Amino acid sequence: MQGQAQQQAYDRGITIFSPDGRLYQVEYAREAVKRGTASIGIRTAGGVVLAVDKRIPSPLLEDSSVEKIHKADDHIGIASAGHVADARQLIDFARRQSQVNHLRYGEPIGVETLTKTVTDHIQQYTQVGGARPFGVALIVGGIENGEPRLFETDPSGTPYEWKALAVGADRGELQGFLEENYDEAADLDGGVSLALEALASVNDGSLLPNEVGLATVDAETERFVQLEDDEIETHLVENDLLDEGEDEDEEADE
């Protein structure tokens, strides 16, 4: 009983390390990320691709209200996995920092600079009493000095740079798929195809356009672009990933 009481003490105290050097609340925040639907980021020679599984729980829900990809600045996009409300707070913070940089220095903020500013903010919530860590992981992708950059933020406040990554549900399977199929020399369309194929690999091999979010940041234009459902459907058809149920429903409507 005494050991259990000690465990609960470390469990509840965000600012207290356990004897083996763990912060349990941070680990619980990571578990919250795993419960969120998957998000994928891929860095290619032609730019950055962000793709998310939006999974609509009810036909009565407006598809557009499920937001997992956000524009942080003209040249930076962010995808999230975990608690949506926590993600919105961090994305609003990132947008403010981007604007501050524009006003203060007269130039766009760097992708790495923005990521580390956000992770510094996240880290503060791992050592302040009366607060809890953010239960969300972000994928921050954009163009910096003409080069595509891709970062992950962790609930501990640690930034990681990746060539391709997945966060959220099925991370192990998705990461394995990306490791096997990633091509560093691929163009932007190749990155889109890989992202959709990865999502389909954990969704019975097919996807619905309204249940996928997709955005790109082109290295030439340095512009964030979020794709509409009809554009996503075109990519799904080209890669033979469109859910057959979608076609059957359309035929029935006709």
Question: Overview of this structure, please?
Answer:
The chain is of the alpha+beta class and 254 residues long. It is 41% helix and 23% strand. It has a single domain (22-253), classed as Glutamine Phosphoribosylpyrophosphate, subunit 1, domain 1 (4-Layer Sandwich). It has 8 helices and 10 strands. The strands form 2 sheets. Strands 8-1-2-9-10 form a 5-stranded antiparallel sheet. Strands 3-4-5-6-7 form a 5-stranded antiparallel sheet. Helix 5 (171-181) crosses helix 6. The relative contact order is 0.18. Component of the proteasome core, a large protease complex with broad specificity involved in protein degradation.
Could you tell me the radius of gyration in angstroms? 19 Å
- Stretches with pLDDT under 50, minimum 5 residues: 250-254
CATH architecture field? 4-Layer Sandwich
- Give the neighbour order of strands across the main sheet: 8-1-2-9-10
Main location: cytoplasm
Function: Component of the proteasome core, a large protease complex with broad specificity involved in protein degradation.
Keywords: Cytoplasm, Hydrolase, Proteasome
GO molecular function: threonine-type endopeptidase activity
